[in-house]
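COMPLEX REQUEST
Ligand: adenosine-5'-diphosphate
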Amino acid sequence: MALTLGIVGGGQLARMMIAPAVELGVDVRVLAEEPGMSAALAATATGDYRDLETVRAFAREVDVVTFDHEHVPQAVLRALVDEGVTVHPGPDALQFAQDKLAMRARLAELGAPQPEWAAVADASDLQAFLDENGGRAVVKTPRGGYDGKGVRVVSSPEEVADWFGDGPLLAEELVDFARELAQQVARRPSGELAVYPVVETVQRGGVCAEVIAPAPERTARLAEVAADIGAAIAEGLGVTGMLAVELFETTDERLLVNELAMRPHNSGHWGQDGAVTGQFEQHVRAVLDLPLGDPAPRQPWAVMVNILGGPETDTLESRLPAALAAHPAAKVHTYGKAPRPGRKVGHVNATGDDLDAVVYEARAAASFFAD
Ligand code: ADP
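STATUS: Structure written out below.
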């Protein structure tokens, strides 16, 4: 009988696990937050992932539970594990992707390179951190941030006055980075690792805009150092499934860990068309404890350009034929989401052996969907 994978969360990451799961003969069930979500192509239950009864009932129908996001509460996850449900990644690992303060403390124990940081409970703690770090800092809410929400660059505690009172905040040095990178690693419960090439991620307005795979090497041993950091974190935290380690490459050529995601990640979409085994197939294999696929690139370069939503009245579908006609070598992926301004509604991948040409191809195809 086919294995059934249960994915909590009905967004595009769940959606993109469906095709490779089907190819592997794995059935998929999704617990979506509301009807009609991106991943509703698979058998879908609708309910609140914060409610133990809802998630428990969902888990009964599947062999392994995994996630499209990191928001399922620890109490729910731990109750499932105690009841014998197979959950990947498990709560012990996932807590470090849910809470940035817990992550910083654990990465410090593992000796991973990080920005200077502190837990700041009040304005005077933050002022002390500012005084020690040149008068500016990045302050983050430990939980619930995404796409730059929950991140502020400040030079005085008043700028985050509205955030105090709900537990300590994370203060970090304002890193002078040359660029942002991401290192992905897959790890299966039995321990096997598959390490992807480190990629460059280009952010605009706090949102990932483009990814270049692999990251053009500016310093010797970049790929090796990044791979070692990713593998050490995957093993040190006992991650199962896909791990993405977001990194800063500093102007003085150090790599520092920004944050972790324990699921497929926007920085890995290139691999659907650019790697022997893309991250969605790899995540499915890893959480089912199947042998991992080869993470090697198929072509020297792959570039991913995100499609962000335009006016609500417009549809991706109406623009698709022209984009496909003009760029037959580009791969367009759409998420079945209503386009709202700034919302990630799809992406384009292009691959080849000339980086400039690949960047051009991906941007040109994506531009058909821009305003
Ligand atoms: P989110 O969880 O919203 O993705 P991140 O912690 O990844 O938040 O921060 C969002 C962006 O803010 C990063 O991609 C980076 O551009 C910038 N940023 C975050 N932390 C720092 C830092 N310590 N120094 C400089 N820039 C930072």
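REMARKS: The mean pLDDT is 96. The first strand starts at residue 4 and ends at 8.
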